[in-house]
Specification:
The protein folds into 2 domains: 102 residues, no CATH class; 47 residues, no CATH class. The protein has 6 helices and 6 strands. This is Palmitoyltransferase.
Length: 184
């Protein structure tokens, strides 16, 4: 909003607040990317699975507390662990493999992923608020407020830019909010 409110003391405040949110967003993103999601370690020695493949009858009842054998990586895995077809490993309490962090969201990094989603939604909401304040504020409604010098073509470009920024921040914010709600 600096071009629309050139002498306002709120411009440095909004710039600092928005950049702080973005910094927190990037820090949580880096933690979610670099943190181990809870990968189940592979055994040091090969495990004999011949009894499982021989066709011998298995236990018909299996509780949620039983360890199982992964068909793909052939390792014992704890309850609620799932195999990721992208990472080719079993992950404890795996939720999904997220392309945003290029990592699985699991037991050990889900906290950072939820924080990342929260700050992404907050940044989108803050950006939408800033665009609305700049667009609907007293300087944004006046013809001279939209463009220095009153150029009509520049006014249309800035109006289109405001509309695109507003729609982008609202749609992205809604998507991130739904994913955040699902994770919580």
């Amino acid at each position: 909003p600096a071009p629309l409110l050139p002498r306002s003391p709120w411009c440095p405040f909004h710039a600092a607040a928005f950049n702080l949110i973005v910094l927190l967003l990037l820090a949580c993103h880096a933690r979610a990317v670099l943190a181990d999601p809870g990968v189940v370690p592979l055994p040091d020695t090969a495990i004999d699975f011949s009894d499982l493949r021989s066709g011998a009858p298995r236990k018909p009842e299996r509780s949620q507390e039983d360890w199982t054998v992964c068909d793909r990586c052939e390792a014992y895995r704890p309850p609620r662990a799932h195999h990721c077809r992208i990472c080719h490993r079993c992950v404890r309490r795996m939720d999904h493999h997220c392309p945003w962090i290029n990592n699985c969201v699991g037991e050990l990094n889900q906290k950072y992923f939820i924080q990342f989603l929260f700050y992404a939604g907050l940044a989108s909401l803050y950006a939408a608020g800033l665009v609305l304040a700049a667009w609907l504020g007293p300087a944004g409604r006046s013809p001279a407020g939209m463009a220095a010098g009153g150029d009509v073509a520049n006014n249309r470009v800035q109006m289109a830019h405001c509309i695109i920024l507003l729609l982008e921040s609202l749609f992205f914010g809604a998507f991130v909010t739904v994913v955040f709600y699902d994770q919580v």
